[in-house]
Specification:
Elements: H1 12-30, E1 43-48, H2 54-65, E2 69-74, H3 86-95, E3 100-105, H4 110-117, E4 121-127, H5 133-147, E5 154-158, H6 165-176, E6 180-184, E7 200-202, H7 205-208, E8 214-217, H8 233-240, H9 244-247, E9 255-257, H10 270-273, H11 280-299
Parallel strand pairs: 1-2, 1-3, 3-4, 5-6, 5-8, 6-7, 8-9
Helix pairs in contact: 1-5, 1-11, 2-11, 5-6, 5-11
This protein binds phosphoric acid mono(formamide)ester (CP).
């Protein structure tokens, strides 16, 4: 593959190659080798039409640690605010010789359009409510570090699935890796297509918790909602929030994940987010090595 747009594009071998490469790169970093010469002379453009903290910074760190030249483009402050189209923006980047474009965009499917206009690799850093494949890869990397093999492991993903590109990419990748995924959400926050996804669905978080090896809480995306989906924060928190009492129902070695940014006190209690069994900060660190692996393999032409 030249691009990474959907987790569905990854075979099990592709996914394991990325995760194993990330593991090797992490070992190199642990030996205090901060920078590798691998992508010297290559240009990676971070093209962000939507806000981001973790993804944008970790792709920048990943490209720099591989010695690539990095150009950061954010739509705010660019000629996009004067009405320039995605196509003309893409052609401008093409003229600058981008070997890879990492794009976040509010429209689902936008990276597919970009891939038609540029010669370099396109990496989807989150498109609308569609996908966020490198988030799923860093999540799988984090789970493997704690659980070793993901085959047959029980992964529970909870919350605003309807608006979550993270949930969709995780379901696709985790099922490819042989894990058993259960989504837990209020019926109004599940997409109509969920019946075709390779996972189970439950409305009862308390019943699922004792059987979970991993619980992944999703951010309630208030900015993408209206009152019909989401009547009350307090009611949501009471039924679907991971508070101290629910946390106690998890098996002793289960881990708690969240892709960030979090609504502390809504989908997850602060004391759970900050507990020793939370991998939330570790996920951010793993994001750098996982994204290094993706850039390394895509620009090296090996996946
Ligand atoms: N998890 C994630 O995509 O975070 P950002 O929106 O901060 O990049």
């Amino acid at each position: 593959n030249k691009h990474l747009i959907s987790a569905a594009d990854l075979s099990k071998d592709d996914a394991l190659l990325i995760l194993d490469t990330a593991e090797e790169l992490a070992r190199v970093s642990e030996r205090s080798i901060k920078k590798l010469p691998t992508l010297r002379g290559r240009t990676v453009v971070n093209l962000f039409f939507e806000d981001s903290t973790r993804t944008r910074i970790s792709f920048e760190a990943a490209a720099k640690r591989l010695s690539a030249d990095v150009i950061n483009f954010s739509a705010k402050g660019s000629s996009v605010s004067k009405g320039e189209s995605l196509k003309d923006t893409a052609l401008t980047l093409e003229a600058m010789g981008a070997d890879a474009v990492v794009m976040r965009h509010g429209a689902s499917g936008a990276p597919y359009r970009l891939a038609n206009w540029i010669r370099g690799s396109v990496v989807n850093a989150g498109d609308g409510t569609h996908e966020h494949p490198t988030q799923a890869l860093l999540d799988a990397f984090t789970m493997r570090r704690h659980l070793k093999n993901l085959e047959g492991r029980k992964i529970t993903i909870v919350g605003d699935v309807l608006h979550s590109r993270v949930a969709r990419s995780n379901v696709l990748l985790l099922s490819t890796l042989g894990a058993d995924v259960t989504l837990v959400a209020p019926p109004t926050l599940l997409p109509v297509s969920v019946g075709t996804w390779p996972c189970d669905v439950s409305y009862d978080l308390d019943a699922v918790l004792p059987k979970s090896d991993v619980i992944m809480m999703l951010r309630v995306q208030k900015e993408r909602m209206n009152a019909a989906y989401f009547p009350s924060e307090r009611e949501y928190s009471r039924r679907y929030g991971l508070d101290r009492d629910r946390f106690a129902k998890l098996p002793d070695d289960a881990i708690v994940m969240h892709p960030g940014p979090m609504n502390r006190g809504m989908e997850i209690a602060a004391e759970v987010a900050d507990s020793a069994r939370s991998t939330i900060v570790e996920q951010v660190a793993n994001g750098v090595t996982t994204r290094m692996a993706v850039l390394y393999l895509l620009l090296g032409g090996e996946i």
